[in-house]
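Sanity check

After download, print the first record. It should look like this:
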Amino acid sequence: MASLPPTVYVRVPCAFFLRFSEGNNSITDPNTFTVQPALKRFYPNFLTLEFVPFENLHTTTDFWIPESNAMAGRIILTNKSNATRQIKLEVCATLAHLNGQSIVPTQQQLVNILAGQTSGIAPVIFMTGGPQHGPGPYASLLLDLELGPGSTRTLSFAQAAQDTIPEAFDLARKTTARSWPAEIARIEMTNASQILDIRTGDNDWDAALAMSQQTAQSLFINNGNHLPYPSCVQARHIDNGYSHAGDGTDYPPAWNGQFALDAYYLSNILHGTPHITKNLILNFLHTQDEDGEIDGKPGLGGQRGKIFMYAYSCQHGMEILSTHRR
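Expected structure tokens:
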């Protein structure tokens, strides 16, 4: 499971996409690629796509979420043809800002970046390789690449959001400097120890079973000092997590506490990580008061649902705890 640090999650309506150009041809729509993107591996905070935007230009992209306010990407281009090729690669970005500024080309410490302002935070996009600002309709970072026959070029970029542009730039640059092989190896080892590899003979079922486990793993969040162990939410989307109150007490039902039924449901999916469901039970027990009552929905912001635990939840808890002791 990818554990996220205790923080206040802020929605940043920022989107980015890649643009490939060769000669007079430019392409951004994956549906028009020579070979459309295919998902090759996925974990709660990481995925790999493979595709071919132009004939014989094999491309692998990795996307990784190392922490709640940073995203990293790695692009591997391989020229499978017998000719030297001139490829333009752009990372383009848009920002639906709220009382701020859209994404614009700018510089930080003489480095070309993209930056904006929205809702009191500053998203910044940084790219390795010394990019220029692109000339297209969208703000972009552009690299002119010369790829010889059979050659490969690897580039990385990162988007970070902090209170100020200098802080976000520093985080984005540090994120791209992290060792991708080491980070991927760590993620794969964690995944191998926590996810059951189920083979049914039906590829669709295999994918559904694998995805359900990965999705369930991503629902857990470290939530600071209110509960002793990571708690779960019901969804992880761009609209989830931001608290106008600043402490999570105004979260909607999908985020305002771990519910007993959710704990029971997750325990039937995460068979490879019994300690996670055990920790959910311990979170419930943490709310027990002097009268012995246990709250049925303790929240991420310290709130209480003020509902009793179901009788079956107690039995389920005993089963989980006894299984974990074996």
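If your output differs, re-run the checksum step. Summary of this record's structure: The chain has six helices and 15 strands.
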